[in-house]
Amino acid sequence: MRVLLIGSGGREHALAWKIAASPLLTRLYAAPGNPGIGREAELVSLDIADHTAVARFCTEKKIDLVVVGPEGPLVAGIADDLRAENIRVFGPSRAAARLEGSKGFTKDLCAKYAIPTAAYGRFGDLASAGAYVEKMGAPIVIKADGLAAGKGVTVAMNLAEALAALDACFDGSFGQAGAEVVVEEFLTGEEASFFCLCDGVTALPFGTAQDHKRLSDGDVGPNTGGMGAYSPAPVMTPEMIDRTMREIVEPTMRGMAELGAPFSGVLFAGLMISDSGPKLIEYNTRFGDPECQVLMMRLKDDLLVLLNAAADGQLAHTSVRWRNEAALTVVMAARGYPGTPEKGSVIRGVEQAAGDGVEIFHAGTAIDSGALVANGGRVLGVTATGGTVGEAQRRAYAALDRIDWPQGFCRRDIGWQAVAREQAR
Ligand code: AMP
Ligand code: GLY
Fold first, then answer.
1. How far is the CA of 46 from the centre of ligand 1 (A)?
2. How far apart, in whole angstroms, are the C-alpha atoms of residue 6 and residue 79?
3. Which residues, at least 6 apart from 242, have a Cβ–Cβ distance to it below 8 Å?
4. Ligand 2 atom nearest 288 alpha carbon
5. How far apart are CA 28 and CA 383, in angstroms?
6. On the CB side of 183, how many CA atoms lie within 13 Å of its CA?
7. Burial of 285 (0-12, 13-18, 19+ CB in 10 A)
8. 3-class SS at 354?
9. Which of 65, 81, 88, 143 maximizes the CB count within 10 A of its CB?
């Protein structure tokens, strides 16, 4: 098979690494990719926003499957535009990607199908949103409706913070994404990420993870795209997975089909596991990053077989096997992240740090005069497996400490909840 992978982050490096291991693969291209992905794939400098150019490339190179990593192109309709040219795609249509592209759309779907989630209101102006916030009181959660690169959510612990967040949305801080706002009830419990592969009809559970969204040790500081993750998530017991499928994912699949927008691709449910069971915080319509890195390290089966089954509507006849090991990723970020990261500092020792159950996935890297340099906020994902989360954690940090990059930083406590649980046993 000839495959084109779209994207350039740690998620896409992990996908490229796993796709490259498939006996079905004859040729892997990646656009735009990064130097790590370049070890697994031929990099092509396509403008991925130009869907006509991507389709032309696929036709010329006889691509059998396009795998879309990030949400931006999906929400922009790349899957529809490629399918219109008879090109097979793993990823949802524009209409189905609204599950990530519009928080209000997803909340309305939850209301219609009685899917457990936070109570909410949708607002298009400051006055009515402000009145609702004052009526509900704090703590309360303010979300820009559209895609805001993970920055559109404020968990406000008091009214002043909530009103300031509303001001920011309606001031245009998030552009068009903030023109509409969702205000939500504050949920409590333990968060987990739950993934399904979907083919429009069937959703196949595809692993669990926990992410560390906050910048600093002890889960404090600003929100980021994710500073580390581990899999599996201990709160996602087989019973909790069954309930999540029945109460959240299956009604969503039914609802999307009834709307004429059947969902195919990766459905990533951000969950709050509350005393009364799983509640949906949000959907993403792609793999999480860094969650994808830990999932790919644990996946025993051939990823291409699974992606083909999803693209062809064959998931009802498919199963997934996982290694009986934990995996953990520590993100190394460039100084300045999540604000403006410093670019261009030289990173040494990456190749030597990998090996023996440790993979180092590239995110924001580049090659400059033959040297590997930082070229983004999140730069490397140091990922290790182990018999326990604790063992995976030790191996990940041992590898990370062999990397010579003074301008990089990381959290030192990724996996702490799971490690504490293991030690208490
Ligand atoms: P999101 O971008 O929707 O995943 O939100 C970012 C983070 O904000 C989530 O991972 C949660 O930690 C938090 N969050 C979002 N919605 C809620 C909610 N309704 N109640 C409590 N925390 C929330
Ligand atoms: N790590 C969270 C996300 O990819 O959305």
1. 34
2. 11
3. none
4. 4
5. 22
6. 29
7. buried
8. coil
9. 143
Q: What digits encode the pLDDT tens for the residues 260-314?
A: 999 999 999 999 999 999 999 999 999 999 999 999 999 999 999 999 999 999 9
CB 170 within 8 A of CB 126: yes
Domains with residue ranges and CATH for the chain: 2-95 (3.40.50.20), 119-185 (3.30.1490.20), 190-317 (3.30.470.20), 326-424 (3.90.600.10)
Query: Given the DSSP bridges, would you call strands 277-284 and 190-199 parallel, antiparallel or unpaired?
Result: unpaired
Instruction: Please name the amino acid found at residue 406.
Output: P
pTM of this prediction?
0.95
Is residue 174 predicted with pLDDT exceeding 80?
no
Confidence band, pLDDT 50/70/90 cuts, at residue 150? low
Torsion of CA 17, 22, 26, 29, to 10 degrees: -30
Give the number of the atom of ligand 2 that is nearest the alpha carbon of residue 226.
1
Q: 199 - beta bridge partners? A: 264
Edge-first strand order for the sheet with 89-90 is 42-43, 27-32, 2-7, 65-68, 89-90
Cα–Cα separations (whole angstroms), residue 267 to 33, 312, 346: 23, 16, 36
Calculate how far, in angstroms, residue 224's C-alpha sits from the geometric centre of ligand 1: 12
Q: What is the band of 154 on the pLDDT scale with cuts at 50, 70, 90? A: confident
Whether the pLDDT of residue 172 is over 80: the answer is no
* CA triple 378-383-387, angle to 5 deg: 150
